[in-house]
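Hi,

Apologies if this is the wrong queue. I'm a grad student, and the batch job for Glycolipid transfer protein from Armillaria borealis produced an output file that my downstream script rejects. I'm not sure whether the problem is my script or the file. Here is the sequence I used:
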Amino acid sequence: MAPYLETVKSFADVPVTDAGVDTLAFLEASEGLVGIFDLLGSSAFAVVQSDLKGNIAKVRARYDAAPSQSATLEQLVENEKGEKKRTATEGLMWLLRGLSFTCKALQNAQLKKDEELSVAFTKSYEVTLKKFHNFVVKGVFSLAMKACPYRADFYKKLAADPAKGASASQDVVNEELDKWLAALSDIVTRMETFYEQGNHKL
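Support response: The file is valid. Your script probably expects a header line. Output copied below for reference.
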């Protein structure tokens, strides 16, 4: 039995110390979150996936270029501060916004089990990404929300074993998902505060 969330790095397993959020573990967990959109199964979410992947790549490129200065997300941002182009800082900022959108959408779904995903994602979009988007992008996201699969189908996919073994119980899925989302929410909140207080927003 290995439902999707057990096959990827959990945000609950991302080390967070006084020095900050572990960069590599965070990126690995973020890549796992991107796969959630495959389970949603709609090409309408391709733009979201592409955006997340692109921003993960920007942060990873910075880490690869200066690993000793990028062990944590906070160190990475601080060490890029004096440079003319702060590609990773901007990429991480947008990555956090995308993660926040996904996190809040799934938290909405967990809280209101009688609500369809299209409603959960729309509510999340309203309070996360919408204010940063122009008219065209808002239209793209609006289409994506409408293309959300039925709640029951999505949760069935979350419970399914990618290796075709027995599916997990819904209780196990809910427990894992809640843990995963709580840790993600904590990291996003921490990093948003860091960006605000350090005046790192671009």
